[in-house]
Amino acid sequence: MLEMRPGCECCNRDLPADRYGAMICSFECTFCQECAAARLGGRCPNCGGELVARPLREGVALQENPASTRRVYKPEGCGS
Question: Which InterPro entries match (predicted)?
């Protein structure tokens, strides 16, 4: 099951699990769409993997399987 991290690793923007706008790599590193495109060129700065749209988790699925509260914030690895 996806961890559904709550924020962008580059800019720390909130990324709720039930809203579009999050991009992830195969290791679940999480970024907002803007940072993924403008700062990272669609590649994860941690593993070099492709960043793809994270699926939503909504309703009962979100209630029974809450998103993570573990925030990862590493702006130093996100370029300028």
Answer: DUF1272
State pLDDT tens for residues 13-71: 999 999 999 999 999 999 999 999 999 999 999 999 999 999 999 999 999 999 999 99
Please tell me the distance from the alpha carbon of residue 9 to that of residue 34, in angstroms, as a whole number: 12
Answer whether residue 66 is part of any domain. Answer: no
CA nearest 16: which of 45, 57, 76? Answer: 57
Q: What is the CATH number of the domain that holds 18?
A: 3.30.40
30: nearest Cα among 72, 70, 69 = 72
Strands 52-53 and 30-32 turn out to be unpaired
The reported pTM is: 0.93
